[in-house]
Each structure stands twice: as C-alpha cells, then as structure tokens.
Here is the input.
Amino acid sequence: MTTQVITHLRSDARDNRERILAVARAAFAAEGLDVPIREIARRAEVGVATVYRHFQTKEALLAEAFEEQLASCSAVVAEGVAADDPWRGFCLVIERLMEMHALDRGFARAFTSQYPGAADFAADRDRTLRLLLELVRRAQEAGPLRDDFVLEDISLALMANEGIRAETPELRVAASRRFAALMLQSFQANPVRAPLPPAVRLPLSRR
Amino acid sequence: MTTQVITHLRSDARDNRERILAVARAAFAAEGLDVPIREIARRAEVGVATVYRHFQTKEALLAEAFEEQLASCSAVVAEGVAADDPWRGFCLVIERLMEMHALDRGFARAFTSQYPGAADFAADRDRTLRLLLELVRRAQEAGPLRDDFVLEDISLALMANEGIRAETPELRVAASRRFAALMLQSFQANPVRAPLPPAVRLPLSRR
Here is the structure.
C-alpha cells in the first residue's frame, strides 16, 4: 500500500472511532446503558467487528464515551475537597455535578447506574465518590451538614436530578439549579431559608 | 351467527381491549408516551385497526390506561384538601403521590409529561393540580410552607422522584420515601430537622 492509502485508512478508522463514540453517547443518553453493541454498530453504520476493533469490550466503550465528563467530575470534587469551608465545598460539588448531569443526560445515567461489567468506569466514579464521602464527613464534623446524611443521599439526589425534564438543556439546567438549592437546604443541619434560584416552567405546568 | 359465536367474539374483543391496555401501560412506562399506536398493536398482537376500534385516539388510550391511577391521585389530593391542617394535608399529598409514582413509573411519566393531544388526561390531571394549588396557598397562608414555593416545585419534585431507580419497586418506594421527606423539609418555611426515613442502598452505592 502506498503511504497515501495507509493515511486514508487511518483517517477512516479515526472517523469510525469518533462516530461510534458519538453514537454510543447518544444511545446511552436516550435509552440507558443496555443498548447492545450491535445496535450501536448499526446506528454508526459500521460492522460489529469494527466496534470491537476499537473497543475491546462494551465497558471500554462506556468508559471512553464518558472519559471527559468523568474527568470533569473528578476535577469538581477535587475543587470541593480543597475548599477551606467543607460545607461550601460540598455545596459546590452538588451544584456542579447536578449542572453537568443536567447538560448531559447520557453521562448522568452512566454515572448513577451500576453497569455490571463497566469496571473501569465504576472504579473512576467510585474514586470520585470516595473523595466526596471524605468531604461529607468533614462537613458533618464542622456542623453544617446533617448527621443523618449518608452517601446514598448523594445517589438519591443525582438520580432525582436525572428525572428533571424540560424543553431545552438550558431550561433543564435552570430547573436543576433550583432543585439543587432545595436539596442542599434539606441537607443542612440548621437550615437557613436562603432565596431559591427562579422556578422554571416545566412540561407539567404548561397549561 | 349463533349466540355462542357472538359471545365468543365479544369475549375476544374484551380480551383484546385488556391486552392493549396492559401493553400500552407497560410501553408508556418503559419508553415514555411517544410509543406509536402501531407498536402497541404489534406487541399486543392485534391489528392497528383493532386498537383504533377500542380507542378512537391515542389520547383515549392514554386516558384509559391510567384512569384508575388518576382517580387515586384525585382521591389523595381530595383527602389532603380536606385535612384540618393544610401543611399536614400538603405533606400527605406529596408523600402519597410520590409513593404512587414510585410504584408505577409509567403513570408517573404520564402524569409529569405534556403529551400534546392527551386533552382528557391532561384536564383530569390539571384539575387535580389546581386543587393541590389551593392547598399550597392555604399552607402558605397558615405559615409552614415557604412563601417562594410555586406549583412548578411540585412538578420538579414529582419529576425528580421519577428519576429514582432501585432494584425492586419496594426499594424504589423506600428510597422515594426518604426523598419525599427531604423535599418536604426543603419546602418548610421554618424547617424542623425531623428524622428521615432510612436510606436505601441504590445502584450507585453498590460497591
């Protein structure tokens, strides 16, 4: 093969890889993580073998599809952990995670799902959550976070955040912001009734 | 036709009708309200014409599929409105609606969706929500419900409740119960940090 042909093939392979990742993100977003590889191959207009050539396992595909978002989550948690005031750090993390999840529902779904084989993805996420748990302990010891708050309440809040639907991602983020403020007030040991971000008209309320 | 044949046909028609309703409930539950009639016909193993013979429109199908649940919602709200203490009434409604929605995600989805043509369903639901709004006003006037609470916050809370996933309906109800308690504490004008229902292990936290 000439160099030109090889370059061409490589560029094709790269295109395929990117297309598979884009299709996978969209599919996981809309239908959850159970969408089979063969369906992702079909939508990306490649053969199943091509998908497996790029991603040895479905878990590898999952991990790579959301690599960037997971890294952003870790960065947010690191920022929260580094805050002088653990309660402010905790609030920052919840607010930012909810905003990121509101913008990318596929990732939100991946983040709050237990996909049995996705060990790499789960390990990365769990590292992030363990850091967050450390922050939770500090915010409880300092006083502002209620004593009966548990890590499961973060799962609960993040899954609940996923349920919020709105006509546009912008409206979803706005609704999610109000929701985050409500949840954070419910998590406070001695709640202060701070003003809430504005309410957003939601599907249910359009009448 | 003999009477026997006619009876047989009628019984067939009744079976079809029930099967279509069951399939529709399950489909709306799993995939939202956009599942087309032809797909519901396919899964119920009847022709599209048969579906339309029983339900003139998709909206009629939707309304009938969730008739019982909508009636239960109305009954819950009526009970809440009748309570002497409007805040207690309000809490009862939120707790019961969330529990009902946690048990039947298809209905939850229908309840919090704006399906353009489903006028009957939406009208019934909106009547229920208007009653609830009345209760909101009374709970605000009496003091316990925060002033900046708006009807959209009920939508927000109900949609968020829909996002909660767990391995079994029982676990989902248990998680939803804790979530309802958190939301209600966030809605209080002068929150009292009452104990929460127990936390539930969720997909995210199984590790």
Residues 3-31 of chain B form the longest helix (29 residues). Residues 3-62 of chain B form a domain with the Arc Repressor Mutant, subunit A fold (CATH 1.10.10.60). Chain B has ten helices and no strands.
